[in-house]
Amino acid sequence: MTDQEIVEQINISIAKEFELDQDTLTPETTLFEDMGLDSLDIVDLVIVLEAAFSFKIREEEAIRKIQTLGDIHTFVINKKREQENKA
Amino acid sequence: MQLRRVVITGMGIISPFGRGIGTLMDGLVEGRSGVVNVPELAEIVGMRTRVAALVPGIDPKEIPRKFRRSMSSMSVFATLASHDAVAQAGLTEAEVTGGRLGVSIGSTVGSPQTMQDFFRDFSIDNSLERMKSTIFFHIMNHSCAANVSQTLGITGRILSPSSACSTSCQAVGYAAEMIAGGKQDFMLCGGADEFHPLTSATFDVMNAASINFNDSPTMTPRPFDRDRDGVVCAEGSGILLLEALDSALARNATILAEISGFATTSDPASIANPNAANIAHCMNMALLDAGVTPAEVDYVNAHATSTEQGDIAESEAVFSVFGGKVPTSSLKGNLGHAMAASGTLELAACIEMLRNGYLLPTNNLENIDPLCGQIQHVQELIHIPVNTVIKNNFALGGVNSSIILRRYNQ
After folding, report:
1. B303 classed as catalytic
2. For chain A, what are the domain ranges?
3. Is the Cβ pair A40, B130 closer than 8 Å?
4. Would residue B233 show up in a list of annotated catalytic residues for this protein?
5. Which of A2, B79, B102, B211 is at a distance of 20 to 30 A from B6, taking alpha carbons?
6. What is the block-wise mean pLDDT of chain B (410 residues), using blocks of 10 residues?
7. Closest CA to B340 of B3, B71, B57, B106
8. Which residues of A touch B69 (CB under 8 A)?
9. Which of B251, B281, B310 is the last residue in one of the domains?
């Protein structure tokens, strides 16, 4: 997957799970204030990302520092590249 | 203890006819049936019944995602019905959220569909890693009460009676007692259930589900009829807004009817089969609670689910308490059996009968079973003044309940 494909897949998955308009999502969109997510949603966000990208990230420390959609893009892209390098 | 009169000032209905009390009454007055053939039931090995009464035309997305994520369809039904009951009663935001309003809403079980979805996924690889955070809120036994309270912002008492077919009758009775005792001024009360094949199967394995009308679904169930062959499961929610009389008068609210008596009793004769003497005892206790004599009762709204034994036992009990002259009917011939919701769906219809002066017949009652024949069956709509009604519900597990409803008089 290219970085752009990863970003698109993240946005599609998040928009579907949390019933958001994909057109309103930008890298600067914040999870809590702009998207209106809470702690329960973050649990489900992790599950959605794990299903979309076939990796396990629940225990990753970096997850807790995510604030914006752009942070998710960066996190997932790095994680995918890490997976590819290991393979 | 402070004892206050309790009246009804709001109703919310999600029934097999759709949303709203008007929709429910139109269907009942026109003698329609909400029962349909459900093709998916034919795909289940061992399932003989293929009919159910399902709720049409509800849009769950009326409820914001933040609240809806913790709901299965039964909580969606209960929440929309609660919203409508509050709207009809005309409660202000402060009255809803300020602690004077409590909740007494139950279901037979937590969501069986969510349970099925979870265990189907879990059993693939014995893994919890795909489990969403909100599953518990769907399957907990107080899911409906909790979701209604969260969505409406209710801060008063909250309880969730669960007694299968007696659930909503008990929920109303306990709510009325809380208001009478001065603990709350308003109570949202009733029940909800969602259709799942497990419910039909429960009756089917006991040979108590209707199986002979799969291709003519509107002809079943047939309460009290010679050719009845069992329960038809349904879904929905009936919610009443109960209020202390003094509060309703102070608000100048429209008073729909008065809850004047309630009884609920355990029937240890059998966990599955109703007992006429114990049903009669429950009805007598409710009459005593209301200070009403059997002669003052204008109408019996029967539980009568169309099972062989239940309809006979209830007929015998009604005859023993009221004799053979009090008009009696069951609305399950139109609505099927909505389990935890059945009591308040039927109670709401009783309120409208009482307000408008007519009695609804038992749909599909064509040839009265001689063993149910000692009582006065309503077989066509009768226009008659109605002042006092007794509403029965009886549940698997041996849980009897009866409510006395009266026209409000100063």
Report:
1. yes
2. 3-86
3. no
4. no
5. B79
6. 86 98 98 98 97 97 97 98 98 98 98 97 94 96 98 98 96 98 98 97 96 98 98 98 98 98 96 94 98 98 97 98 98 98 98 98 98 98 98 96 95
7. B106
8. 40-41
9. B251
